[in-house]
Amino acid sequence: MVQFIVGRLLYLVPTLIGITIVAFGFVRVLPGDPVLLMAGEHGVSPERHAALMAQFGFDRPLWEQYLDYVTGLLQGDLGQSIITKVPIANEFFSLFPATVELSVCAIVVAIVIGIPAGVLAAVKRGSWFDQTSMGIALVGYSMPIFWWGLLLIILFSGILQWTPVSGRISLIYFFEPVTGFMLIDSLLSGEKGAFASAVQHLILPTVVLATIPLAVIARQTRSAMLEVLGEDYVRTARAKGLSPLRVVGMHALRNAMIPVITTIGLQVGVLLAGAILTETIFSWPGIGKWLIDSIFRRDYPAVQGGLLLVALVVMAVNLTVDLLYGLVNPRIRHR
Amino acid sequence: MNDRPSFDTGAVPVAGEAPRQHALAGFWFHFSENRGAVVGLAIIAALVLVALFAPLIAPHDPGEQFRDALLAPPAWQQGGSPRFLLGTDAVGRDILSRLIYGSQFSLFVGVVVVGIALAVGVTTGLIAGYFGGFADAMIMRVMDIILSFPSLVLAIVLVAVLGPGLTNAMIAIALILQPHFARLTRAAVLAEKSREYVTAARLAGAGRLRLMFVTILPNCLAPLIVQATLSFSNAILDAAALGFLGMGAQPPTPEWGTMLAEAREFILRAWWVVTFPGLAILITVLAINLVGDGLRDALDPRLKRS
């Protein structure tokens, strides 16, 4: 197992280096003077320009700049936002819990609905339920989620007035964040109604962000189940006289889960891409909205740092899924 | 190529035509079994016609502003008029006409993006799979790096570098979609490379390029076609998302995502401004995905639902 983990980690090294090169190169290929872009200033005197050059190290050879950049990264230094003057890492990790909270809720919804729906559709193949649920899944899979979010706002916030339009909690509640997760913090605060308000704010963004992963997981579960249900050992289990529930739940589902776990892992990138759109629509103060805002504010150090951290998060989650996969499926671990 | 033995050129096409027609008929038989796929194909055909004949079909010019009819509701609602079937937007432009012209952009985006992604991805995948070794390692690491960023994040950053606009958005989307083609092609080439027919072609004196593009590639097509339809719908969705975020086509272009971005502030006042462009995106993407599912079932026997 240790060998397996070390192997996976070593395999990531070239990709890791590549990601830092992309983030490092991003600022250098921007149109315009990189010094001024990074400093967020324009129309400076030649002396000031030279001073900034030296400050950012742009006067030294490229490889030296890159090594400096990587050394900084290893010490946790991702640069400073032009607008807020706050270190990028601090800014990112203060907003990150909001995105994690939303993404975790979305993926939980997707798994809790998607897997049973997929299993049921496979077991009752060709039935009314199979056709309807797979039809809905295909629509969900094709959904432009930014439009879907707007529609839900029109219906639930506009016409029915059930849910708020934006933010994480009603403005009447104010408490110091402890964990950064609003659901937990609102409970800890002890304020009456705070938790309910946090839940209300979370519902629509969760539904929007969960739509595509839910559709993908349901479709994948169904096809994995169909494949497994045709295998010999399932027929044997049936022939032994095991109850249908036991055959499906114990024998088939466990093996069908292997491709489904991979699919769930792959949804992390989908979730982060979806978070950009969802957070923009619902003014959700997470990293997706922050990244878009940073681009429009021309806060390039923030974009550079955000790009790197997002890629690292995706990588870390994929690695975790890979290791889990090895745990679930011994065939892979022993190879 | 001129010194090839004559029996080669004479006999092969005659023997080759009939099975090809047979294969095509077999393909259509399986494809047409899937009702959804046929419906999807019909919708796409209709969309192509709409896009081609937009100037003839559209009741108004997509940019013309009717100052006397701002935010006019659809014809069937109170206050609507048959002049503007789906209503007008905040500056009095006919939504139906804008949607009709918008279909040109979406289909154009899909075709161009998939074209670029296919050309680049297939070529790099062929090189990686055929030559192996260092070229393979380098190419596949670069693809890994591209795939380690969430697609939309990388597209947004690329557009920030290139500048907002439909052309740059298409380039960015093509770049993030092509690793999938490269990986698929490489895997297929690795599987086909050692088959007898490739060895036979090599012994017959076929050059490297001929082996790569003429001998091996046609036998890797099935997964590529399925991936291409998937990418087609992804390209349309991503381009619309970029347009919605203000980084794709710029106003007043009647691109569907851009129309949604412009409509955002009116969502609680005029539902039709928001609803119809999104519906157009959904129907288009859904039709393409229906065809994609049908193609996958018809082309890939392993995935066929029996």
Descriptive report:
- The complex is a heterodimer of chains A (335) and B (306).
- By secondary structure, chain A is mainly alpha-helical.
- Chain A has 14 helices and no strands.
- In chain A, 38% of the residues are buried.
- By secondary structure, chain B is mainly α.
- Chain B is 72% helix and 0% strand.
- Chain B has helices at 6-33, 35-52, 54-57, 95-131, 133-147, 151-162, 166-193, 196-203, 208-216, 221-244, 256-263, 271-299.
- The relative contact order of chain B is 0.14.
- Chains A and B meet through α1, α6, α7, α11 and α12 of A and α5, α6, α10 and α12 of B.
- Chain B: This is Dipeptide transport system permease protein.
- Chain B: Pfam families: BPD_transp_1, OppC_N.
CATH class of one domain in chain B: Mainly Alpha
Biggest sheet of chain B, in brief? none
Please state the average pLDDT score of chain B.
86
Shape of chain B: elongated
Helix content of chain A: over 70%
- β content of chain B, as a range? under 5%
Straight-line distance between termini of chain B:
45 Å
Oligomer: heterodimer
CATH homologous superfamily (4th level) name of one domain in chain B = MetI-like
Q: Tell me the structural class of chain A.
A: mainly alpha
Distance between the termini of chain A: 11 Å
Secondary-structure content class of chain B:
mainly alpha
Radius of gyration of chain B: 24 Å
Question: Percent of residues of chain A in beta strands?
Answer: under 5%
For the biggest sheet of chain A, the summary is: none
Q: How many DSSP E strands of chain A?
A: 0
Q: Report the order of strands and helices of chain B.
A: HHHHHHHHHHHH
Which word captures the global form of chain A? globular
Question: Which helices and strands appear, and what pairs or packs with what?
Answer:
The complex is a heterodimer of chains A (335) and B (306).
Chain A lengths: L1 H28 L4 H6 L6 H11 L5 H13 L13 H36 L4 H14 L3 H15 L22 H8 L4 H36 L2 H8 L4 H39 L4 H10 L3 H29 L1 H4 L2
Helix pairs in contact in A: 1-13, 5-6, 5-9, 5-11, 6-9, 7-9, 7-11, 8-9, 9-11, 10-11, 11-12, 11-13, 12-13
Chain B lengths: L5 H28 L1 H18 L1 H4 L37 H37 L1 H15 L3 H12 L3 H28 L2 H8 L4 H9 L4 H24 L11 H8 L7 H29 L7
